[in-house]
Amino acid sequence: MVNAKGTPIKVDPKDVSPAWKVLQMKMKEQEAETKSSEKVEESSMMEVDGVSKKHRSRKRKRKEAFGSAETHDEPKPKKAEDIPVVVHDDTPGEPTPVIALDCEYVGGGTDGSDDILARVSIVNQEGKIVYDKYVKPRERVTDFRTSVSGIRPSQIANGLPFDVVQKEVAAILKDRTVVGHALNNDFRVLSFHHNSKLTRDTAKCALLRKMANCHGMPSLKKLANSVLGIDIQQGEHDSVVDARVALRLYLAVKKKWESDIKRYRH
Fold first, then answer.
1. Cα-trace Rg, the chain
2. Which of 84, 122, 208, 256 could disulfide-link to 131, CB 3.0 to 4.6 Å?
3. How many CB atoms lie within 10 A of CB 234?
4. CA–CA separation, 244 vs 239, rounded Å?
C-alpha cells in the first residue's frame, strides 16, 4: 500500500481484515487456474497445428506423386499463337470440348454451281487432327474446283460413302462447341443440324468483324490477314489449315466472345 505522496506504507499482517485475506486467497487461486488453462490451450493448439501440418504434407506428397499424370491426362489448350496453321502437321488428336470444322466442296449440276461434299476436316482445341476424310460423291461431279478446293478425282473416287462420313462427324460434334467459318454452309452440305448455343462462327462474330474493319461478312482469308497477320488460301484451299485458322481466331478473342454471349443470353 502507498500513501497520498506515493510512499510505501508497511502493513502489519495482524491489521489486515479476515475478509481481505479471503479475497487475496481467491485471487491467487484464479491466477493459478488461468495459467493452467493457458498451458492446456497452448498444448492443444500445438497438437492441432501438428495434425494440420501432417495433413498438408500428405496432400503435398499426393500432388507431387500424381501431378504429372494429371497434367498428361488433361493437357491445357495451346494459346492461339502456338496452334499450327500453315505448316502441314498430321499429328492425330482426340476430340476435346472445343473442336473446329471445315469442309471442301466440288461442283455438281449443269453449271457446277451445286455444292457437293468432298472433304471433311476436324481439329481439336490444340490444332491436332481428329478427323480428315474424303467423301465419295453421291451425284455426278461437273466441276472439281481443284484450283480452289484442292480436290482431285482420285481422292474422292476412293472416299468414304456420304452416309458413313455424316454419321461419324455427327458423333464427334455431339455436345461439343464447334468452331468454323460460315458453318451454315458446312452443316448444309453435311445435311446436319448443330445446337446454335454450341456453334461459334467466325464469319458472324461482330468482334472479329470490327477488328478486321469489315462491315459485311468477312472471308476467312480477310480475318486471318487482318486479325492474325497471316496469309492463307493463296492457291488451293486446305480444310485442315482453314479449320486451324478458324480455331486460332476463336481463341484470340475467346474470353470477350464468350463473355458477350453470356451477357446477351441473360
1. 37
2. 122
3. 8
4. 9
Closest to 242 measured CA to CA, from 104, 39, 138: 104
Percentages (nearest 5) of helix, strand, coil residues in the chain: 50, 15, 30
State the DSSP H helix or E strand holding residue 120, giving kind and residue range, or none if neither: strand 114-124
Q: How far apart are the first and last CA of the chain?
A: 77
For cell 481463341, name the residue: 251
For residue 182, give the amino acid letter: A
Q: How many CB atoms lie within 10 A of CB 219?
A: 16
Rounded CA gap, 247 and 253, in Å? 10
Q: What is the DSSP letter of 228?
A: I
Range of the domain at 234: 98-264
- Per residue in 104-156, pLDDT (tens digit) is 999 999 999 999 999 999 999 989 999 999 999 999 999 999 999 999 999 99
* Number of structural domains found in the chain: 1
